[in-house]
Design goal:
alpha+beta; Rossmann fold; 5 domains; six-stranded mixed sheet; six-stranded antiparallel β-barrel
Length: 660
């Protein structure tokens, strides 16, 4: 039989087409409409019986709520001719089968009889209001992705069931085959759920872990993997300390190329082309204009093995107190010496800052010293081995006199800070064939970590303070550990505080250990009630607050007009972050430098080069420790009229002076 060319030709054909060209009348058609029943019958166009016309739908405005009267007997009886079906709200009526009194999809609660004669049960009509429609639309938008997945699964299941039913109907089988397929589908779903349950359980268990313990473990693991060192750059003025510090940050990718170009342009405008690298560390306009560092610059960089905090100390003699505050926080010292003709001699001669800085660094606890001979690229030097050996030969005896073990604690390096030569990578043999040693980064990575006590009483001398949504203090952890939520005490004013947050470098952490330079946000104290020199300590073991103490002094070089050191001598005391005027109250005994034992003879005065134990008194209470307990808080220097006259360590804290 030929295929019809139009619907008219199709209607003119016989009502009994051949079996090969017609569908099985008993085989149900199925639709993929999610909201429709799985086996809704569809009229076959090859049948001679035309499809029934759909009943006209009553129009109701969307914004008009429907009136439903429960007492209406027509509605209670399920008569579809009376009342409005809410599920056809603003929609066209569905397709109806022949002989049914209501639509196939929307019938009375009592159910309706389909064309096949089967009773189809329906749910009770649900009344939709504008509010409920809006809520459903919102929920549908939120769960659009989930609904899409569920829809695909439902379509696949219906497809399998419908195919199974079609096969069973064609073979004349009963509904047992459909039940078997449905049971197999259910078993597959159960197996899939069993596979997903362990993953879900594992994720829940991971979420139930203590977040603080996990973060603390990660922090402690990070601290163990990378050691942290504080490096102070010291030396005579114009030796190139800030330039080397800026070059280190550039080579370690802490400063981008665009910033370097900006600084280079700014330096060129001021006719100081060689200063642009120093601008990275010298952020103050006064420092950039004069070319001299005033405040201690602070920066951070990392290598593959270690984390470093750079402390760029000023080199001018007028700013030695600032240098002392920076060196007191350091673990390693980088003494920068200029190799240029005349500059080394000026810094190392009597009164030069190269000598004073090296001696102060040793006094303040810097046990490792890297002597960086800078400006080796100068035309007057040109990487000369003779100039390098000359500087090394002249400085070694002085380092021995300061107490350094030259073989273990002192290392010399030739570098060019302006061009970054022999800093991150070793100097090429074509430029410096005689140097076989490490570069600066390798030397810093090789420095051994100093001994620290993370379980000792917490001590953090306050270096600075400011307001930032609360009171924030800065300093280096000298002893113990600190974490968010700890209750501490600020000495000597005995103000109890709580740790709100701890910051390291540019990020927030939950745990800090000894040696870390951190910022701590405190609750329970105002910024006006804290001063530089106060100490944040543990409540159970607070730091002693004293007005006098016994100390062992090494007299260095007294002033010409004050040539003897006697009771009543006044000077300026520098101990950790404290700068306080003091007075020598009593000379207890002098120590023999050969035998290291006290001399029994009563001492009335001493001269330069002597070692004496004396009692020191200050005007206000200060927080200090014995050198044997916490060395960083028990060593100090005495300065008079801009010169360092003595260095010392605290040997005893009299009970009468301790503020309980």
């Amino acid at each position: 039989m030929a295929e019809p060319d139009s619907w008219e030709d199709m209607d003119a054909q016989t009502s009994n087409p051949p079996a090969s060209s017609r569908l099985n009348a008993n085989a149900p058609s199925f639709s993929f409409n999610v909201n429709a029943p799985a086996f809704a019958p569809v009229q076959n166009p090859y049948y001679s019986t035309p499809p029934p016309q759909a009943a006209p739908a009553a129009f109701f405005p969307v914004n008009r709520p429907q009136f439903v009267n429960p007492a209406n007997p027509a509605i209670n009886a399920g008569n579809p001719s009376v009342g409005f079906n809410p599920q056809s709200y603003g929609r066209d009526p569905p397709y109806t089968a022949s002989g049914s009194q209501s639509t196939a999809f929307y019938s009375s609660p009592a159910g309706s009889q389909s064309a096949a004669g089967n009773i189809v049960a329906h749910e009770a009509p649900v009344i939709e209001t504008l509010e409920s429609v809006g809520e459903k639309d919102a929920n549908n938008r939120q769960g659009e992705e989930l609904k899409s997945d569920n829809t695909q699964m439902e379509v696949e299941d219906r497809f399998v069931k419908a195919e199974a039913k079609a096969v069973s109907a064609a073979n004349g089988q009963t509904n047992d085959y459909e039940d078997q397929v449905a049971s197999e589908l259910q078993s597959l779903k159960l197996k899939e759920e069993v596979k997903q349950e362990p993953t879900q359980e594992m994720s829940i268990n991971k979420g139930d872990l203590d977040l603080e313990n996990v973060e603390d473990f990660e922090e402690s693991e990070e601290l163990e993997n990378k050691q942290h060192l504080n490096v102070v750059f010291i030396g005579h003025v114009d030796a190139g300390k800030s330039t080397i510090g800026g070059q280190i940050l550039f080579l370690s990718n802490m400063v981008d190329e665009r910033t370097i170009q900006k600084y280079e342009k700014e330096a060129k405008e001021k006719h100081r082309e060689s200063w642009y690298m120093a601008y990275i560390m010298d952020t103050n306009e006064e420092e950039r204009a004069k070319g001299k560092t005033v405040e201690v610059g602070r920066a951070h960089f990392e290598t593959e093995k270690s984390r470093f905090t750079i402390l760029d100390a000023p080199g001018h003699k007028n700013y030695v107190p600032n240098m002392i505050s920076g060196a007191s926080q350091a673990d390693v010292g980088v003494l920068v010496i200029s190799a240029r003709k005349g500059e080394f001699e000026t810094g190392f001669e009597r009164g030069g800052q190269t000598r004073e800085h090296a001696m102060l660094a040793k006094t303040l606890g810097v046990s490792k010293l890297l002597v960086v001979v800078n400006k080796m690229d100068e035309p007057s030097v040109q990487w000369s081995k003779e100039r390098f050996d000359e500087i090394e030969k002249k400085t070694i005896p002085f380092f021995k006199g300061c107490g350094y073990n030259v073989k273990k604690d002192v290392q010399f390096l030739p570098v060019s800070g302006l061009y970054g030569i022999n800093m991150r990578e070793r100097v090429p043999k074509s430029m410096c064939p005689w140097w076989d040693g490490p570069c600066l980064f390798e030397a810093l990575d090789a420095v051994e970590l100093p001994p620290r006590d993370p379980k000792g009483p917490f001590r953090l001398p306050i270096m600075d303070k400011f307001k930032d949504m609360g009171t924030v203090v800065m300093g280096k952890v000298e002893s113990g550990s600190i974490r968010v939520g700890d209750s501490l005490i600020v000495m000597p004013n005995k103000a109890q505080v709580k740790v709100v947050a701890v910051y390291r470098d540019s990020g927030e952490i939950r745990l800090a250990r000894p040696g870390e330079n951190i910022r701590v946000k405190l609750a329970g104290v105002e910024e006006e009630d804290i001063s530089t020199g106060f100490v944040l300590s543990s409540i159970s073991r607070p730091i002693p607050s004293v007005v006098e103490f016994d100390a062992q002094l090494q007299i260095l070089e007294l002033l010409d007009h004050k040539a003897i050191f006697t009771p009543g001598y006044k000077a300026v005391l520098h101990i950790h972050s404290i700068v306080e005027e003091c007075e020598i109250m009593e000379l207890l005994h002098q120590i023999d430098q050969k035998t290291k034992k006290p001399i029994k003879k009563k001492v009335l005065f001493v001269k330069s080069g002597s070692v004496v134990v004396c009692r020191v008194q200050v005007n206000d209470s200060i927080c200090v420790e014995k050198f044997s307990d916490v060395p960083q808080l028990g060593r100090f220097t005495l300065r008079d009229e801009g010169r360092t006259v003595a260095i010392g360590k605290i040997v005893n804290l009299p009970k009468v002076a301790t503020q309980e």
